[in-house]
Amino acid sequence: MTSLDALWYHAPKNGGPPVFEYWPWTLLAIAIAVVVEYLSLRFSPLVPGYNQLSPKKKVEWQTRPPGVVFAVIASSWGIYALWFDPDAHVMWEDRTYAVTATSGKLFSFAAGYFAWDVYVCIRDRIPIEYLYHGAVAFVVFGSRLWWPRFGWYGTYTTTYELSTPWLHTRATLLALKKTDTVFFQVAHYGALVVFVTVRLVLGLPRALESYASYYELIQSSDIRDNINGWAMGLACTIMNGLNVFWFFLIVKSLLKGRSKTTKAT
Fold first, then answer.
1. Taking a C-beta distance cutoff of 8 angstroms, is the pair 243, 200 a contact?
2. Left if phi > 0, otherwise alpha if psi is -120 to 50, otherwise beta: which for 16?
3. Largest CA-CA distance found in the chain, in angstroms, rounded
4. What is the reported pTM?
5. Tens-place pLDDT, residues 29-83
6. What is the pLDDT of residue 147?
7. Per-residue 3-state assignment (H helix, E strand, C coil) for 178-231
8. Do 124 and 63 touch, CB atoms closer than 8 A?
9. DSSP state, 47?
10. Any idea what the Cα angle at residue 166 is, between residues 137 and 71, rounded to 5°?
């Protein structure tokens, strides 16, 4: 096993590194989101069709670029941390207590982004389900900083973000009314395929497996583990419930689009 400078690995009754050991990554995530949003506000008016959008659509538009940038970084980081990081094996061997340094930094980065996301949801009065998602995600990643647990599951969750660029691209083309293009068809069906694959087909079985780890902590004699087990179990239920809810919304949208096509022919 490598030194703790390169690896978080804790016996069941040990806590771990200082709570804010990786706080610069949290600030970096917030800074990236703020800069990307500023650039979007500055240059979006140059996009044909943007100026014709309603104020509500413009607000929705501005949340997408930071989300896409975060999704690309976090999902790539998560894939590396699970399958290419030399220390990843400890998380595969112990999915309850092991957290590598690579994943610890990723959790700090994700906590920063979702803190910003919650702020934006409140500021712009984004629909409540997105606020729930941001708040729960912040708890999921933020909790791993003060009491590191569930490194494997937390890291795997970031791969869900692979579907975000597809979903945001589809939503942007819908807003611009570019639904009669090949690009939209690729984004439209690609969003469904990637969403279902990473969040449901691959994600749900992993989520169900994780309840065994939550139960293990609930049975622990350490009150911090008890709290963590209950909180993560509830968060897992909410997050995956939202994924199922969004899946039905996507299917409904697809069926609606097909119905319009049928009537047109």
1. yes
2. left
3. 66
4. 0.85
5. 999 999 999 999 999 999 999 999 999 899 889 889 999 999 999 999 999 999 9
6. 74
7. CCCCHHHHHHHHHHHHHHHHHHHHCHHHHHHHHHHHHHHHHCCCCHHHHHHHHH
8. yes
9. S
10. 35
Non-local (6+) Cβ contacts of 140 within 8 A are: 154, 157, 232, 235, 239
pLDDT tens string 113-132: 999 999 999 999 888 888 98
Q: Give buried/exposed letters for 111-141 (b at 16+ CB in 10 A, else e).
A: bbbbbbbbebbeeeebeeebbbbbbbbbbbb
CA 162 to chain centre: 9
* Nearest Cα to Cα of residue 100 among 109, 92, 91: 91
Which ranges of the chain does DSSP label H, i.e. alpha helix? 23-43, 55-83, 89-93, 101-123, 128-146, 151-158, 164-175, 182-195, 203-218, 223-264
Is residue 139 helix, strand or coil?
A: helix
Task: Quickly tell me which residue has 């047109």 as its tokens.
Answer: 264
Residue with tokens 């590396």: 80
- Tokens 């439209």 found at: 188
How many residues are listed for the chain in this entry? 265
**What contacts 105, CB < 8 A, 6 or more positions away?**
22, 25
DSSP 8-state symbol, 161 = G
Phi then psi dihedrals of residue 16, to 5 deg: 140, -160
Estimate the crossing angle of helix 223-264 against helix 182-195, to 10 degrees: 150
Residue 95: what residue type? R
